[in-house]
Specification:
The structure holds 3 protein chains of 3 kinds.
Chain A: H1 2-19, E1 30-35, H2 50-57, E2 65-67, E3 75-77, E4 80-85, E5 91-96, H3 110-123, H4 129-132, H5 141-144, E6 145-149, E7 152-156, H6 163-171, H7 181-186, H8 195-198, E8 208-214, E9 218-223, E10 236-241, H9 245-254, E11 259-260, H10 265-270, E12 277-292, H11 297-300, H12 302-309, H13 314-321, E13 326-328, H14 350-360, E14 367-373, H15 378-391, E15 395-401, H16 403-411, E16 417-422, H17 430-437, H18 453-456, H19 462-473, H20 477-494, E17 498-511, E18 514-515, E19 531-532
Parallel strand pairs in A: 1-10, 1-11, 14-15, 14-16
Antiparallel strand pairs in A: 2-3, 4-5, 5-7, 6-7, 8-9, 9-10, 11-17, 12-16, 12-17, 13-17, 18-19
Helix pairs in contact in A: 12-14, 19-20
Chain B: H1 2-36, H2 38-55, H3 57-60, H4 92-128, H5 130-144, H6 148-159, H7 163-190, H8 193-200, H9 205-241, H10 253-260, H11 269-296
Chain C: H1 2-33, H2 38-43, H3 49-58, H4 65-77, H5 91-126, H6 131-145, H7 148-162, H8 187-194, H9 197-234, H10 237-244, H11 249-286, H12 292-302, H13 305-333
Helix pairs in contact in C: 1-4, 1-13, 5-6, 5-9, 5-11, 6-9, 7-9, 7-11, 8-9, 9-11, 11-12, 11-13, 12-13
Classes of the chains: A alpha+beta, B mainly alpha, C mainly alpha.
């Protein structure tokens, strides 16, 4: 078989050389970016979900402040040139820069900022969640977002929390995006605050403006000639919907695209030796984890959960399945975030797990189900975890499906085991991880706190809730770090429903002649600084 | 009444049996004819191999199709792994061998669903006629107004992804042509003397349909079911490919291609072999079906 | 006579409308039974319950089924197919946008399929049961038996990745996107109107591979039917007579036999054209072709019911129309059914 194929392929390659393919390359002032846009359903900043839309909108809208691409804990000025936190930690005052304009030519004023924030709350769509968590509502938006003068924005905190986390939230594309209130109001229909119009139009002050969006086809961005900052080198950015990692790779290799955002590990690895292409990996948001439902009698037992902890081949997964997707991490706070403790170093230990299972009354293991999305790396993670579970006699039947089916089951609290990804982390604040992964204020079914993984897994611990709440309001930075460290130790002792085994990293491939690409861990990579060196 | 019943049986049964044995003899000569043509003989041979492989899968497969060995992932074809290994280090040949069982399961269950439904709908519609016939035929028309893949896609979308649902969905889309055929056959028998005779002797409609009409329709229905096998296999693979059919880690060929696709550029064997298997089996059924059609429709010979 | 015709026509119309109503019910059931949750697709993973319920109410997902059906049919009769969740645009606009891509693909495919299929069918009939007949049957049946998505992938590896003979995924290389004004949605026509032959060539380059694979898959049916029609003709007396009268073999075949089956062939090709929709669903996925098939499958995955129902309905209507068309052609042109 092999010799035959070799002959065929050498003939093919030989004739390919003879054919001298035309040299494909994108034009010097046009950037072509490829990624899967399946999840983009709208480009209205208040309604977007998922990282793909953020990757688009980061180039269209400015925020008051932005997260530094290189140093996650640093906050850079954007439309605000400075900001101060009130003495009692209950107000934040932003001073806007002079001379910033929207793509329409309208000046950026504090009224626009306040209007945009209120709009997020009033529409009450996907992006309102991160502000609602901290007590902002449509009802109290009026009093909490105010503009005393044209260049000042004052935000009053409705709940006592660390003001840093609010500032970080305002860095996010979505809740913090500043819209041209005049331009949007002109397009308002039936009091929708421009929601329908913004689905495929833009009204931002960023370096690019939306020229067109065809769902699952392409997004075209044109340079915003009114941009207040340094003019970007690119006249146009085309973002192409390339659902397949292999197509992204092929086109990247051929120079048909310049940057590929969503390639799989196998393809990134294959590009390692390609001189025309570079791969860069940066920290991402959230974890890869094994979660149990504590509605299940078996998993209610702490010994069983602890046994599972020793039935994950941390090292094996890290080496074989997770390169380019994640890196080893067994604590509930991502590395690089203040207060994060070093990893404990859990290892696959079948004997220990068996002993724990015997103690729990399952000396011969049990049968259960393991859910995973039918996408990489989950399709690879699930069978690998299934195999290690089997070593201790736990027979886990794998159930795969779309994200909606798998996480849908989790939201309905109808699952046993899930290997998944999540756990906050878009904000570089330890509260972001902890609140998402373990916090659960109300464990009743009726509460439907589906945005908390803690609720989804039916994990409820009053003490840890209290610890998380207290840490967030701690005004003294050192004391706050100490509190977060205590939470992590407590987490390790009590074995909650979610065991992280890696933290997410994002890997991007790009042509070697691309310069100035600064990947942002919060997905909001700005392509403004990109140039081509040819 | 009892006497009548007995009598009616006496009157109809020998006739039916005679026709049945005639049909059987026709089947035998059909087989002989099929083997005479090189293309349909090829089809028959491949299908026989498929059956044997499914039956003897544990003996034939060199490895356990589900054993994961991440250290041995993505190995090209070699003496140890003739068809190479996949992204989890599973032996592709073994997975294809076990995959024959899934293919055969799909084919068998679809036939078991489709045959009876088509037969019942067709014979009753043909026998009773009237508004019932019109109603039933409208329903078959509605189902026939979709290409089978699109309709089964829609059904799977409604039922949820998975092998069982894919089988049900394919079954739901495959019965209408059978019903059409059974109805047409029934119409030709309905007026036959022996049917009228048993009706006059008071046999119930149900009895006549089950005992007299259905057996007569059976041979042609069987042939028609065989003809649709290739489509069934391709539809199942297509659903698997779109992620709506059999789910990993089941070694369904279409699903294997769907996962293998992510590695296709460097690891051609992940898609080439399962695809080749689908092609071979569906080609075999197509060739056989083609031969059958020729054999049964002398006009085209 | 005319009364009879009128009656037949009314009957036909009744049949078609009954089928259409059934079609509506079926598509609605499919749409509403979908386990995928469109509300969740809109609000995203992290949204809380209040947001979820608000959106559910806005898109009418909270109403009981029968009310949703009434609403659906009512909207349909007003020509309103609803708004797609994925694009935020009226579904009908979306379909008008994606259809040209699919039609362009299918048209090229059918040109390929019929262009090769019909001559091969004739050859097979003439060479009946000889090796050529077997080879043709075998070769065309391979096209019919291959999983089309797989052939597409293999084709991409060989002709795009290795040989660089054809364009990759999509309808155009990015460089050419937006260079010619979008007048008809058909890139070839638009490029020709604009006189931009470079864009035209690029579009053909992208179209070639998926269209020929799709065409190959339809060839078996076309070849087989051509062969059988042709055999019908060749067995007729007039052919023998013509041959006896000394007409050359090729002349009899082309001028007499082929001339007589042209109408039948048109109906066959029309039916095959409809059948290509099925292959398009798969091939468009492989080639990232922004057409009807991709629109339908990607919307299915997020539970975009308005879009899916309209697509399913549209396919049903197209098929019914094609069947009616082929029936009508038969009735008009085939003397035996007149």
């Amino acid at each position: 078989m092999k010799p035959i194929f070799n002959t065929i392929s050498s003939i093919l390659i030989g004739s390919a050389l003879l054919m001298q393919p035309a040299y494909a390359e994108t034009p010097p002032n046009m950037l072509v970016v490829g990624f899967s846009m399946n999840n983009i359903l709208t480009l209205d900043p208040a309604a977007i979900t998922g990282k793909e839309a953020v990757q688009v909108l980061a180039n269209i809208y400015d925020n008051l402040v932005s997260l530094n691409a290189a140093d996650r804990s640093k906050i850079d000025p954007q439309l605000a040139e400075s900001w101060t936190v009130g003495d009692d930690n209950s107000t934040i005052t932003f001073k806007l820069r002079e001379g910033a304009t929207f793509a329409s030519g309208n000046p950026v004023t504090s009224a626009d900022v306040v209007w945009s924030l209120k709009r997020v709350m009033k529409l009450n769509l996907a992006q309102s969640t991160s502000l609602k968590t901290h007590g902002f509502t449509a009802a109290n938006a009026e009093e909490n977002f105010t503009a005393p003068d044209e260049h000042t924005v004052v935000i009053k905190l409705p709940k006592k929390v660390d003001p840093q986390i609010i500032i970080m939230t305002l860095c996010l594309v979505g809740p913090g995006s500043v819209l041209d209130s005049k331009a949007v109001t002109e397009q308002e229909k039936d009091g929708d605050l421009g929601n329908a119009w913004l689905t495929n139009n833009s009204a931002g002050s960023g370096p690019f403006k939306l020229e067109g969006w065809r769902s699952n086809e392409r997004v075209t961005l044109d340079r915003n000639d009114e941009y207040w900052g340094d003019a970007p080198a690119m006249r146009r950015i085309i973002m192409r919907h390339l659902a397949e990692s292999q197509s992204q790779r092929l086109m990247l290799e051929k120079g048909d695209i310049d940057i590929a955002y969503s390639m799989s590990a196998a393809d990134l690895k294959a590009l390692e030796n390609n001189e025309d292409v570079k791969v860069q990996t940066i920290g991402g948001s959230g974890f890869y984890y094994l979660a149990v439902s504590m509605k299940d009698e078996k998993f209610k037992n702490q010994k069983v959960r602890e046994a599972l902890r020793y039935l994950i081949d941390y090292q094996g997964l890290n080496d074989s399945v997770l390169p380019y997707f994640g890196k080893f991490r067994d604590r509930p706070i991502q590395t690089g975030i203040s207060g994060a403790l070093p990893s404990i170093g859990y290892k696959l230990d079948v004997e220990k797990a068996k002993a724990l299972l015997a103690e729990a009354g399952y000396p011969n293991g049990f049968s259960t189900t393991l859910r995973a999305i039918s996408d990489t790396p989950f399709v690879n993670l699930a069978p690998a975890i299934q195999a290690t579970l089997a070593q201790a006699g736990i027979k886990a039947e794998i159930i795969t499906g779309s994200g909606d089916q798998i996480y849908g089951a989790m939201r309905e609290r109808k699952f046993e085991l899930i290997v998944g990804r999540g756990g906050g982390g878009q904000l570089p604040h330890p509260d972001s991880n902890l609140r998402s992964i373990v916090y659960n204020p109300d464990n009743s079914d009726e509460a439907k706190l589906t945005n908390f993984q803690g609720w989804r897994t039916s994990f409820y611990d009053e003490k840890i809730n209290k610890m998380i709440d207290e840490a967030l309001v701690e005004a003294n930075p050192e004391a706050q770090i100490k509190k977060y460290e205590e939470i992590q130790t407590y987490y390790a002792d009590m074995v909650p429903a979610i065991q992280p085994f890696a933290e997410v990293v994002d890997s991007v491939g790009f042509r070697a002649d691309i310069r100035g690409l600064e990947l942002n861990a919060s997905w909001s990579t700005e392509l403004r600084t990109v140039t081509k060196e040819r | 009444m009892t006497a009548n019943l007995l009598h009616s049986q006496d009157a109809t049964m020998p006739e039916t049996r005679r026709k049945q044995s005639l049909a059987l003899r026709q089947l035998v000569s059909l087989f002989r004819e099929l083997l005479g043509s090189p293309t349909s003989a090829f089809g028959l041979v491949v299908i026989t191999i498929l059956l044997l492989t499914a039956l003897l899968a544990p003996v034939i497969a060199p490895y356990d199709p589900n054993i994961i060995n991440l250290g041995n992932a993505l190995q090209p074809p070699s003496a140890a792994h003739w068809f190479g290994t996949d992204e989890l280090g599973r032996d592709i040949l073994s997975r294809i061998v076990y995959g024959t069982r899934i293919s055969l399961t799909i084919i068998t269950i679809v036939s078991v669903i489709v045959g009876p439904i088509g037969l019942i709908v067709g014979t009753t519609a043909g026998y009773f006629g009237g508004w019932y016939d019109t109603f039933m035929m409208r329903i078959t028309d509605i189902f026939l107004s979709f290409p089978s893949l699109i309709l089964s896609l829609a059904f799977v979308a409604a039922l949820g992804a998975g092998l069982e649902n894919a089988i049900i969905a394919i079954g739901l889309t495959a019965w209408p042509p059978i019903a059409r055929l059974a109805r047409a056959e029934t119409l030709t028998f309905r007026g036959a003397d022996y049917i009228s005779a048993s009706r006059m002797q008071g046999a119930s409609a149900l009895r006549i349909i089950v005992k007299s009409i259905m057996p007569m329709c059976l041979p042609s229905v069987l042939v028609r079911v065989t003809l649709s096998m290739a489509t069934v296999i391709l539809t199942a693979a297509g659903l698997g490919f779109l992620g709506l059919g059999a789910q990993p880690p089941l070694p369904e060929w279409g699903a294997m291609i769907a996962t293998g696709r992510r590695y296709m550029l460097d690891n051609w064997w992940l898609v080439a072999f399962p695809g080749g298997a689908i092609l071979l089996v569906s080609l075999a059924f197509n060739l056989l079906g083609d031969g059958l059609r020729d054999a049964l429709d002398p006009k085209q010979r | 006579m005319s009364n009879e015709r009128l009656f037949a026509f009314a009957r036909q119309a009744g049949t078609v409308s009954a089928t259409l109503i059934g079609l509506l019910v079926l598509t609605f059931c499919i749409g509403r039974l979908m386990p995928v949750d469109p509300v969740r697709a809109i609000v995203g993973e992290e949204a809380d319950q209040a947001t979820y319920e608000m959106v559910a109410e806005r898109i009418g997902a909270h109403l009981p089924l029968y009310q949703q059906f009434i609403r659906y049919v009512n909207d349909l009769t007003h020509g309103d197919f609803g708004v797609s969740i994925r694009t935020g645009q009226p579904v009908i606009n979306d379909i008008l946008h994606v259809m040209p891509a699919t039609i362009e693909l299918a048209t090229f495919a059918i040109i390929f399929g019929a262009g090769f299929g019909i001559p091969l069918g004739i050859l097979a009939a003439v060479q009946r049961n000889k090796p050529a007949d077997h080879v043709i049957r075998f070769a065309t049946l391979i096209g019919h038996s291959m999983p089309i998505f797989w052939t597409g992938m293999i084709g991409l590896i060989i002709f795009y990745a290795a040989l660089d003979l054809v364009g990759g995924g999509g309808r155009l290389s990015d460089y050419y996107v937006g260079l010619v004004p979008d007048r008809t949605g058909f890139i070839l026509i638009d490029a020709a109107i604009a006189g931009d032959w470079e864009v035209f060539a690029d579009a053909v380059n992208h179209l070639m591979l998926p269209a020929s694979i799709l065409g190959y898959s339809s060839m078996a049916y076309i070849t087989r039917m051509t062969r059988s029609f042709m055999l019908d003709q060749l067995n007729q007396e007039y052919i023998t007579t013509a041959r006896v009268k000394g007409l050359s073999k090729s002349r009899t075949i082309w001028h007499h036999a082929f001339a007589n089956i042209r109408v039948q062939l048109v109906t066959i090709v029309a039916l095959a054209y409809g059948g290509l929709l099925e292959g398009a669903v798969l091939i468009e996925t492989v080639f990232s072709w922004p057409g009807f098939g991709q629109y339908m499958t990607s919307n299915m995955l997020i539970g975009d019911m308005n879009a899916v129902m309209t697509c399913v309905l549209l396919v049903g209507v197209i098929f019914i129309a094609l069947n009616l068309l082929s029936d009508a052609l038969y009735k008009i042109f085939d003397p035996r059914t007149r």
